[in-house]
Amino acid sequence: MANVAVIGAQWGDEGKGKIVDWLAERADMVVRFQGGHNAGHTLVVGENVYKLSLLPSGIVRGTPSVIGNGVVLDPWALKAEVEKLGAQGVAISPETLVVADTCPLILPFHRDLDGLREDASGAGKIGTTRRGIGPAYEDKVGRRAIRVCDLAHLDDLGPQLDRLTAHHDALRAGFGEPPIDREALLAELRDIAGFVLSFAQPAWRLLNEARSRGRRILFEGAQGVLLDIDHGTYPFVTSSNTVSGTASAGTGIGPSGVGFVLGIAKAYTTRVGSGPFPTELEDETGTRLGERGHEFGTVTGRKRRCGWFDAVLVRQSAAVGGITGIALTKIDVLDGFEEVKICTGYRLRGETLDYFPAHAADQALVEPVYEAMPGWSESTAGARSWAELPAQAIKYVRRIEELIRCPVALLSTSPEREDTILVRDPFAD
Ligand code: GDP
Ligand code: IMO
Ligand code: MG
Question: Is the keyword NAD assigned to this protein (predicted)?
Protein backbone atom coordinates (compact mmCIF):
# COMPACT_ATOMS: atom_id res chain seq x y z
CA MET A 1 0.00 0.00 0.00
CA ALA A 2 1.54 3.26 -1.12
CA ASN A 3 0.84 6.84 -0.30
CA VAL A 4 1.00 9.10 -3.32
CA ALA A 5 2.70 12.46 -3.78
CA VAL A 6 1.60 14.63 -6.68
CA ILE A 7 4.12 17.19 -7.92
CA GLY A 8 4.32 19.46 -10.96
CA ALA A 9 7.00 18.35 -13.45
CA GLN A 10 7.22 21.64 -15.38
CA TRP A 11 6.68 25.30 -14.40
CA GLY A 12 3.38 24.79 -12.60
CA ASP A 13 -0.23 24.76 -13.85
CA GLU A 14 0.16 21.24 -15.23
CA GLY A 15 -3.27 20.18 -13.96
CA LYS A 16 -2.30 19.06 -10.44
CA GLY A 17 -5.67 20.19 -9.02
CA LYS A 18 -7.67 18.09 -11.45
CA ILE A 19 -5.53 15.00 -10.83
CA VAL A 20 -5.51 15.41 -7.04
CA ASP A 21 -9.30 15.79 -7.03
CA TRP A 22 -9.61 12.64 -9.16
CA LEU A 23 -7.21 10.64 -6.98
CA ALA A 24 -8.82 11.97 -3.79
CA GLU A 25 -11.64 9.51 -4.30
CA ARG A 26 -9.14 6.75 -3.46
CA ALA A 27 -7.45 8.66 -0.62
CA ASP A 28 -8.32 9.04 3.07
CA MET A 29 -6.55 12.35 3.43
CA VAL A 30 -5.12 15.07 1.18
CA VAL A 31 -2.18 17.17 2.43
CA ARG A 32 -0.53 20.31 1.05
CA PHE A 33 3.17 20.45 1.94
CA GLN A 34 4.73 23.61 0.46
CA GLY A 35 3.98 26.91 -1.21
CA GLY A 36 1.00 29.00 -0.23
CA HIS A 37 -1.77 30.87 -1.98
CA ASN A 38 0.51 31.49 -4.97
CA ALA A 39 -0.93 28.19 -6.20
CA GLY A 40 -4.06 28.09 -8.32
CA HIS A 41 -5.57 24.65 -8.70
CA THR A 42 -8.66 24.28 -10.88
CA LEU A 43 -11.26 21.54 -10.48
CA VAL A 44 -14.11 21.07 -12.92
CA VAL A 45 -16.97 18.92 -11.69
CA GLY A 46 -19.90 18.96 -14.07
CA GLU A 47 -21.11 22.56 -14.26
CA ASN A 48 -19.06 23.65 -11.26
CA VAL A 49 -15.57 25.16 -11.39
CA TYR A 50 -13.58 25.40 -8.17
CA LYS A 51 -10.37 27.41 -7.93
CA LEU A 52 -8.27 26.57 -4.91
CA SER A 53 -5.14 28.38 -3.81
CA LEU A 54 -4.49 27.34 -0.24
CA LEU A 55 -6.99 24.60 0.47
CA PRO A 56 -6.02 21.05 -0.50
CA SER A 57 -7.92 19.90 -3.60
CA GLY A 58 -9.46 16.94 -1.72
CA ILE A 59 -11.73 19.35 0.15
CA VAL A 60 -14.23 19.53 -2.71
CA ARG A 61 -14.94 15.79 -2.45
CA GLY A 62 -15.05 16.13 1.33
CA THR A 63 -11.84 14.13 1.79
CA PRO A 64 -10.24 15.24 5.09
CA SER A 65 -7.61 17.80 4.22
CA VAL A 66 -4.48 19.06 5.92
CA ILE A 67 -2.33 22.15 5.37
CA GLY A 68 1.11 20.94 6.40
CA ASN A 69 3.90 22.81 8.17
CA GLY A 70 5.79 23.43 4.90
CA VAL A 71 3.06 25.80 3.70
CA VAL A 72 3.26 29.55 4.36
CA LEU A 73 -0.20 30.58 5.50
CA ASP A 74 -1.93 33.89 4.92
CA PRO A 75 -4.72 33.82 7.54
CA TRP A 76 -6.92 36.29 5.65
CA ALA A 77 -6.49 34.38 2.39
CA LEU A 78 -7.50 31.21 4.25
CA LYS A 79 -10.64 32.83 5.58
CA ALA A 80 -11.57 34.30 2.19
CA GLU A 81 -11.11 30.92 0.49
CA VAL A 82 -13.10 29.02 3.12
CA GLU A 83 -15.92 31.55 2.62
CA LYS A 84 -15.68 31.39 -1.18
CA LEU A 85 -15.87 27.59 -1.17
CA GLY A 86 -18.68 27.74 1.38
CA ALA A 87 -20.67 29.94 -1.02
CA GLN A 88 -20.11 27.24 -3.69
CA GLY A 89 -21.62 24.64 -1.37
CA VAL A 90 -18.38 23.13 -0.04
CA ALA A 91 -18.73 23.21 3.74
CA ILE A 92 -15.37 23.43 5.50
CA SER A 93 -15.08 22.83 9.22
CA PRO A 94 -12.44 21.61 11.67
CA GLU A 95 -13.82 18.13 10.89
CA THR A 96 -12.63 18.37 7.29
CA LEU A 97 -9.68 20.78 7.52
CA VAL A 98 -6.61 20.77 9.75
CA VAL A 99 -3.89 23.43 9.67
CA ALA A 100 -0.47 22.54 11.09
CA ASP A 101 0.20 24.63 14.17
CA THR A 102 3.77 25.20 12.95
CA CYS A 103 2.90 26.91 9.64
CA PRO A 104 4.66 30.29 9.35
CA LEU A 105 2.26 33.16 8.66
CA ILE A 106 2.26 35.46 5.66
CA LEU A 107 1.56 38.92 7.07
CA PRO A 108 0.47 42.10 5.24
CA PHE A 109 4.02 43.50 5.17
CA HIS A 110 5.25 40.35 3.36
CA ARG A 111 2.82 41.08 0.56
CA ASP A 112 3.93 44.75 0.53
CA LEU A 113 7.58 43.76 0.28
CA ASP A 114 6.95 41.27 -2.53
CA GLY A 115 5.25 44.02 -4.55
CA LEU A 116 7.80 46.71 -3.71
CA ARG A 117 10.67 44.50 -4.81
CA GLU A 118 8.94 43.51 -8.02
CA ASP A 119 8.13 47.12 -8.86
CA ALA A 120 11.73 48.13 -8.19
CA SER A 121 13.20 45.37 -10.36
CA GLY A 122 12.08 46.66 -13.75
CA ALA A 123 12.94 44.25 -16.52
CA GLY A 124 14.71 41.94 -14.06
CA LYS A 125 11.57 41.19 -12.09
CA ILE A 126 10.67 37.59 -11.33
CA GLY A 127 7.01 38.04 -12.07
CA THR A 128 5.92 36.69 -8.70
CA THR A 129 2.28 36.31 -7.73
CA ARG A 130 2.85 39.21 -5.26
CA ARG A 131 1.32 37.15 -2.48
CA GLY A 132 4.27 37.59 -0.08
CA ILE A 133 5.48 34.02 -0.50
CA GLY A 134 9.21 34.80 -0.84
CA PRO A 135 9.40 37.28 2.07
CA ALA A 136 7.47 34.89 4.35
CA TYR A 137 9.84 31.99 3.60
CA GLU A 138 12.80 34.34 4.20
CA ASP A 139 11.48 35.07 7.69
CA LYS A 140 10.92 31.37 8.35
CA VAL A 141 14.52 30.52 7.47
CA GLY A 142 15.71 33.67 9.26
CA ARG A 143 13.97 32.38 12.43
CA ARG A 144 11.84 35.49 12.72
CA ALA A 145 8.47 34.13 11.62
CA ILE A 146 5.22 34.27 13.54
CA ARG A 147 3.60 30.87 13.31
CA VAL A 148 0.05 29.57 13.70
CA CYS A 149 0.73 28.41 17.27
CA ASP A 150 1.82 31.97 18.19
CA LEU A 151 -1.73 33.16 17.53
CA ALA A 152 -2.71 31.62 20.86
CA HIS A 153 -0.08 33.74 22.63
CA LEU A 154 -0.38 37.15 21.00
CA ASP A 155 0.09 39.00 24.30
CA ASP A 156 3.50 37.37 24.74
CA LEU A 157 4.89 38.15 21.28
CA GLY A 158 7.05 41.04 22.58
CA PRO A 159 10.69 40.29 21.71
CA GLN A 160 9.71 38.04 18.80
CA LEU A 161 7.72 40.87 17.23
CA ASP A 162 10.58 43.31 17.96
CA ARG A 163 12.99 41.20 15.93
CA LEU A 164 10.56 40.79 13.06
CA THR A 165 9.52 44.42 12.84
CA ALA A 166 13.11 45.69 13.24
CA HIS A 167 14.11 43.58 10.24
CA HIS A 168 11.20 44.74 8.12
CA ASP A 169 11.30 48.37 9.18
CA ALA A 170 14.87 48.60 7.86
CA LEU A 171 13.80 47.06 4.54
CA ARG A 172 10.74 49.29 4.34
CA ALA A 173 12.81 52.40 5.04
CA GLY A 174 14.93 51.48 2.00
CA PHE A 175 11.76 51.71 -0.10
CA GLY A 176 10.62 54.93 1.57
CA GLU A 177 7.78 53.09 3.35
CA PRO A 178 6.63 53.88 6.91
CA PRO A 179 7.48 51.44 9.73
CA ILE A 180 5.05 48.66 10.61
CA ASP A 181 2.20 49.77 12.86
CA ARG A 182 2.55 47.13 15.58
CA GLU A 183 -0.70 47.90 17.33
CA ALA A 184 -2.66 47.74 14.08
CA LEU A 185 -0.94 44.44 13.20
CA LEU A 186 -1.71 42.96 16.62
CA ALA A 187 -5.32 44.09 16.33
CA GLU A 188 -5.63 42.41 12.93
CA LEU A 189 -4.04 39.23 14.30
CA ARG A 190 -6.37 39.21 17.32
CA ASP A 191 -9.27 39.50 14.94
CA ILE A 192 -8.32 36.49 12.83
CA ALA A 193 -6.64 34.31 15.49
CA GLY A 194 -9.76 32.46 16.60
CA PHE A 195 -10.65 31.46 13.06
CA VAL A 196 -7.21 30.02 12.27
CA LEU A 197 -6.80 28.38 15.68
CA SER A 198 -10.09 26.53 15.24
CA PHE A 199 -8.35 24.44 12.55
CA ALA A 200 -4.91 24.26 14.19
CA GLN A 201 -3.45 20.96 15.38
CA PRO A 202 -0.12 19.17 15.57
CA ALA A 203 -0.71 17.86 12.05
CA TRP A 204 2.33 15.56 12.16
CA ARG A 205 0.58 13.50 14.87
CA LEU A 206 -2.61 13.20 12.93
CA LEU A 207 -0.73 12.13 9.82
CA ASN A 208 1.48 9.62 11.59
CA GLU A 209 -1.56 8.12 13.34
CA ALA A 210 -3.35 7.88 9.99
CA ARG A 211 -0.30 6.23 8.52
CA SER A 212 -0.04 3.68 11.32
CA ARG A 213 -3.71 2.79 10.77
CA GLY A 214 -2.95 2.11 7.09
CA ARG A 215 -4.81 5.18 5.82
CA ARG A 216 -4.00 6.37 2.31
CA ILE A 217 -2.43 9.80 2.25
CA LEU A 218 -2.31 11.93 -0.88
CA PHE A 219 0.31 14.69 -0.81
CA GLU A 220 -0.52 17.66 -3.04
CA GLY A 221 2.37 19.71 -4.37
CA ALA A 222 2.11 23.25 -5.67
CA GLN A 223 4.13 24.88 -8.47
CA GLY A 224 6.52 22.53 -10.29
CA VAL A 225 10.06 21.15 -10.24
CA LEU A 226 11.33 23.85 -12.62
CA LEU A 227 10.22 26.46 -10.06
CA ASP A 228 12.02 24.64 -7.21
CA ILE A 229 14.34 26.89 -5.21
CA ASP A 230 17.25 24.43 -5.67
CA HIS A 231 16.50 22.62 -8.90
CA GLY A 232 14.56 25.20 -10.87
CA THR A 233 15.50 28.02 -13.21
CA TYR A 234 17.05 30.12 -10.42
CA PRO A 235 16.47 32.97 -9.71
CA PHE A 236 13.19 32.75 -11.67
CA VAL A 237 11.70 30.30 -9.20
CA THR A 238 9.44 30.22 -6.18
CA SER A 239 10.85 30.22 -2.65
CA SER A 240 10.21 26.60 -1.65
CA ASN A 241 11.35 23.13 -2.63
CA THR A 242 8.68 21.72 -4.90
CA VAL A 243 10.24 18.25 -5.30
CA SER A 244 8.75 15.17 -3.67
CA GLY A 245 11.20 15.24 -0.74
CA THR A 246 9.26 18.17 0.63
CA ALA A 247 6.18 15.96 1.05
CA SER A 248 8.08 14.50 3.98
CA ALA A 249 9.72 17.60 5.50
CA GLY A 250 6.64 19.73 4.84
CA THR A 251 4.28 17.43 6.77
CA GLY A 252 6.27 15.60 9.43
CA ILE A 253 6.05 12.15 7.90
CA GLY A 254 9.33 10.34 7.30
CA PRO A 255 10.47 9.83 3.69
CA SER A 256 9.41 6.18 3.75
CA GLY A 257 5.83 7.41 4.18
CA VAL A 258 5.82 8.85 0.67
CA GLY A 259 5.41 6.02 -1.83
CA PHE A 260 4.49 6.63 -5.45
CA VAL A 261 5.50 10.02 -6.82
CA LEU A 262 3.17 11.13 -9.58
CA GLY A 263 4.63 13.93 -11.69
CA ILE A 264 2.09 16.00 -13.58
CA ALA A 265 3.14 17.21 -17.03
CA LYS A 266 1.23 18.96 -19.79
CA ALA A 267 1.51 17.45 -23.26
CA TYR A 268 3.18 20.77 -24.19
CA THR A 269 4.85 23.42 -21.99
CA THR A 270 3.69 26.65 -20.36
CA ARG A 271 5.22 29.17 -18.04
CA VAL A 272 3.83 32.23 -16.28
CA GLY A 273 6.22 34.93 -15.11
CA SER A 274 9.77 35.69 -16.25
CA GLY A 275 12.68 33.34 -16.88
CA PRO A 276 14.18 31.04 -19.49
CA PHE A 277 11.90 28.84 -21.59
CA PRO A 278 13.79 27.08 -24.42
CA THR A 279 10.78 25.77 -26.37
CA GLU A 280 8.70 28.94 -26.08
CA LEU A 281 6.78 29.75 -29.28
CA GLU A 282 6.21 33.43 -29.85
CA ASP A 283 4.38 32.76 -33.09
CA GLU A 284 0.99 31.58 -34.34
CA THR A 285 1.55 28.08 -33.00
CA GLY A 286 2.19 29.44 -29.50
CA THR A 287 -0.95 31.58 -29.73
CA ARG A 288 -2.93 28.56 -30.91
CA LEU A 289 -1.70 26.46 -27.96
CA GLY A 290 -2.62 29.28 -25.56
CA GLU A 291 -6.08 29.71 -27.03
CA ARG A 292 -6.89 26.00 -27.25
CA GLY A 293 -5.52 25.40 -23.75
CA HIS A 294 -7.11 28.53 -22.21
CA GLU A 295 -3.71 29.41 -20.85
CA PHE A 296 -4.42 32.23 -18.43
CA GLY A 297 -3.16 32.16 -14.83
CA THR A 298 -5.64 30.91 -12.21
CA VAL A 299 -4.27 33.27 -9.54
CA THR A 300 -3.23 36.41 -11.43
CA GLY A 301 -5.07 36.04 -14.74
CA ARG A 302 -1.78 36.59 -16.56
CA LYS A 303 -1.35 35.08 -20.04
CA ARG A 304 0.82 31.96 -19.87
CA ARG A 305 3.73 31.60 -22.28
CA CYS A 306 3.38 28.44 -24.43
CA GLY A 307 5.68 26.08 -26.31
CA TRP A 308 6.33 22.49 -27.37
CA PHE A 309 6.89 19.64 -24.91
CA ASP A 310 10.43 19.72 -23.57
CA ALA A 311 11.52 16.14 -22.88
CA VAL A 312 14.92 17.26 -21.57
CA LEU A 313 13.34 19.32 -18.83
CA VAL A 314 10.76 16.72 -17.84
CA ARG A 315 13.45 13.99 -17.79
CA GLN A 316 15.46 16.19 -15.44
CA SER A 317 12.37 16.89 -13.30
CA ALA A 318 11.62 13.17 -13.11
CA ALA A 319 15.17 12.52 -11.88
CA VAL A 320 15.49 15.28 -9.28
CA GLY A 321 11.84 15.03 -8.28
CA GLY A 322 11.99 11.28 -7.71
CA ILE A 323 9.03 10.77 -10.06
CA THR A 324 7.71 7.21 -10.38
CA GLY A 325 5.07 7.85 -13.03
CA ILE A 326 3.65 10.74 -15.04
CA ALA A 327 0.12 12.03 -15.41
CA LEU A 328 0.12 13.58 -18.88
CA THR A 329 -2.55 16.28 -19.14
CA LYS A 330 -4.13 18.42 -21.86
CA ILE A 331 -3.33 16.04 -24.73
CA ASP A 332 -6.64 17.24 -26.23
CA VAL A 333 -5.14 20.70 -26.74
CA LEU A 334 -2.88 19.17 -29.41
CA ASP A 335 -5.83 17.76 -31.38
CA GLY A 336 -5.82 19.06 -34.95
CA PHE A 337 -2.18 20.10 -35.14
CA GLU A 338 -0.70 18.80 -38.41
CA GLU A 339 2.65 18.30 -36.76
CA VAL A 340 3.75 18.12 -33.14
CA LYS A 341 7.29 18.64 -31.90
CA ILE A 342 9.23 17.38 -28.89
CA CYS A 343 12.49 18.90 -27.67
CA THR A 344 15.03 16.08 -27.30
CA GLY A 345 18.22 18.06 -26.56
CA TYR A 346 19.80 21.49 -26.62
CA ARG A 347 22.52 23.17 -28.62
CA LEU A 348 24.79 25.53 -26.72
CA ARG A 349 27.84 27.18 -28.31
CA GLY A 350 28.18 24.41 -30.88
CA GLU A 351 27.78 21.59 -28.34
CA THR A 352 24.83 19.28 -27.79
CA LEU A 353 23.47 18.94 -24.26
CA ASP A 354 21.10 16.31 -22.85
CA TYR A 355 20.40 18.34 -19.67
CA PHE A 356 19.51 21.90 -18.72
CA PRO A 357 22.63 23.83 -17.70
CA ALA A 358 22.72 25.60 -14.31
CA HIS A 359 23.75 29.11 -15.27
CA ALA A 360 20.98 31.57 -16.07
CA ALA A 361 22.86 32.94 -19.10
CA ASP A 362 23.30 29.43 -20.54
CA GLN A 363 19.67 28.62 -19.81
CA ALA A 364 18.62 31.68 -21.76
CA LEU A 365 20.94 30.79 -24.66
CA VAL A 366 20.25 27.07 -25.27
CA GLU A 367 18.49 26.26 -28.52
CA PRO A 368 16.12 23.33 -28.59
CA VAL A 369 16.75 20.34 -30.87
CA TYR A 370 13.36 19.09 -32.06
CA GLU A 371 11.95 15.81 -33.20
CA ALA A 372 8.81 16.28 -35.30
CA MET A 373 5.93 13.80 -35.43
CA PRO A 374 2.73 13.81 -37.47
CA GLY A 375 -0.20 15.12 -35.47
CA TRP A 376 -3.74 13.70 -35.38
CA SER A 377 -6.95 15.12 -36.77
CA GLU A 378 -9.29 13.01 -34.63
CA SER A 379 -10.40 14.23 -31.18
CA THR A 380 -8.95 12.98 -27.92
CA ALA A 381 -11.14 15.39 -25.94
CA GLY A 382 -13.14 13.60 -23.30
CA ALA A 383 -11.61 10.16 -24.02
CA ARG A 384 -11.93 7.88 -21.00
CA SER A 385 -10.12 4.81 -22.30
CA TRP A 386 -6.91 4.13 -24.14
CA ALA A 387 -8.90 2.49 -26.95
CA GLU A 388 -10.58 5.83 -27.73
CA LEU A 389 -7.26 7.50 -28.56
CA PRO A 390 -6.10 7.98 -32.15
CA ALA A 391 -3.05 5.85 -33.05
CA GLN A 392 -0.89 8.90 -33.63
CA ALA A 393 -1.72 10.34 -30.19
CA ILE A 394 -0.69 7.02 -28.62
CA LYS A 395 2.61 7.17 -30.53
CA TYR A 396 3.17 10.68 -29.18
CA VAL A 397 2.59 9.50 -25.59
CA ARG A 398 4.85 6.45 -26.07
CA ARG A 399 7.65 8.61 -27.50
CA ILE A 400 7.40 10.97 -24.52
CA GLU A 401 7.68 8.01 -22.13
CA GLU A 402 10.84 6.84 -23.90
CA LEU A 403 12.45 10.27 -23.90
CA ILE A 404 11.69 11.12 -20.28
CA ARG A 405 12.46 7.54 -19.12
CA CYS A 406 9.32 7.40 -17.05
CA PRO A 407 5.99 5.64 -17.64
CA VAL A 408 2.67 7.42 -18.07
CA ALA A 409 0.33 6.37 -15.25
CA LEU A 410 -2.60 8.68 -16.05
CA LEU A 411 -3.77 10.61 -19.07
CA SER A 412 -6.10 13.59 -18.88
CA THR A 413 -8.23 14.55 -21.86
CA SER A 414 -10.31 17.51 -20.63
CA PRO A 415 -10.71 19.73 -17.55
CA GLU A 416 -13.63 17.57 -16.36
CA ARG A 417 -12.92 15.29 -13.41
CA GLU A 418 -13.99 12.03 -15.08
CA ASP A 419 -12.20 12.59 -18.41
CA THR A 420 -9.18 10.73 -17.12
CA ILE A 421 -7.57 7.51 -18.31
CA LEU A 422 -6.00 5.29 -15.69
CA VAL A 423 -3.03 3.35 -17.02
CA ARG A 424 -1.42 2.34 -13.73
CA ASP A 425 -3.00 2.98 -10.32
CA PRO A 426 -0.50 4.95 -8.20
CA PHE A 427 -2.18 3.75 -4.98
CA ALA A 428 -1.84 0.10 -5.99
CA ASP A 429 1.96 0.26 -6.21
P1 GDP B 1 -2.52 23.28 -11.46
O2 GDP B 1 -2.01 24.56 -10.92
O3 GDP B 1 -1.42 22.33 -11.78
O4 GDP B 1 -3.59 22.66 -10.63
O5 GDP B 1 -3.20 23.65 -12.86
P6 GDP B 1 -4.20 24.89 -13.16
O7 GDP B 1 -5.52 24.55 -12.60
O8 GDP B 1 -3.57 26.16 -12.76
O9 GDP B 1 -4.20 24.89 -14.74
C10 GDP B 1 -4.60 23.77 -15.47
C11 GDP B 1 -5.80 24.19 -16.36
O12 GDP B 1 -6.01 23.19 -17.32
C13 GDP B 1 -7.08 24.30 -15.58
O14 GDP B 1 -7.87 25.28 -16.15
C15 GDP B 1 -7.71 22.92 -15.76
O16 GDP B 1 -9.14 22.96 -15.67
C17 GDP B 1 -7.29 22.58 -17.15
N18 GDP B 1 -7.08 21.16 -17.43
C19 GDP B 1 -6.61 20.19 -16.60
N20 GDP B 1 -6.49 19.02 -17.28
C21 GDP B 1 -6.88 19.26 -18.54
C22 GDP B 1 -6.96 18.46 -19.73
O23 GDP B 1 -6.62 17.29 -19.76
N24 GDP B 1 -7.42 19.09 -20.87
C25 GDP B 1 -7.78 20.40 -20.89
N26 GDP B 1 -8.18 20.91 -22.04
N27 GDP B 1 -7.70 21.18 -19.79
C28 GDP B 1 -7.26 20.62 -18.64
P1 IMO C 1 0.45 26.15 -9.27
O2 IMO C 1 0.44 25.39 -7.97
C3 IMO C 1 2.66 28.63 -12.07
C4 IMO C 1 5.58 31.39 -10.39
C5 IMO C 1 5.31 32.87 -10.53
C6 IMO C 1 6.73 33.40 -10.62
C7 IMO C 1 7.48 32.51 -9.64
C8 IMO C 1 7.66 33.09 -8.25
O9 IMO C 1 -0.86 26.71 -9.65
O10 IMO C 1 1.09 25.34 -10.34
P11 IMO C 1 6.02 33.41 -6.16
O12 IMO C 1 4.76 34.21 -6.03
O13 IMO C 1 5.87 31.97 -5.86
O14 IMO C 1 7.18 34.03 -5.43
O15 IMO C 1 6.41 33.55 -7.74
O16 IMO C 1 6.72 31.31 -9.55
N17 IMO C 1 4.50 30.60 -9.75
C18 IMO C 1 3.69 29.78 -10.41
N19 IMO C 1 3.57 29.52 -11.72
N20 IMO C 1 1.89 27.95 -11.19
C21 IMO C 1 2.02 28.17 -9.87
O22 IMO C 1 1.36 27.44 -8.94
C23 IMO C 1 2.91 29.15 -9.42
N24 IMO C 1 3.26 29.63 -8.21
C25 IMO C 1 4.24 30.51 -8.42
O26 IMO C 1 4.57 33.15 -11.69
O27 IMO C 1 7.25 33.17 -11.90
MG1 MG D 1 -2.15 26.60 -11.24
Answer: no
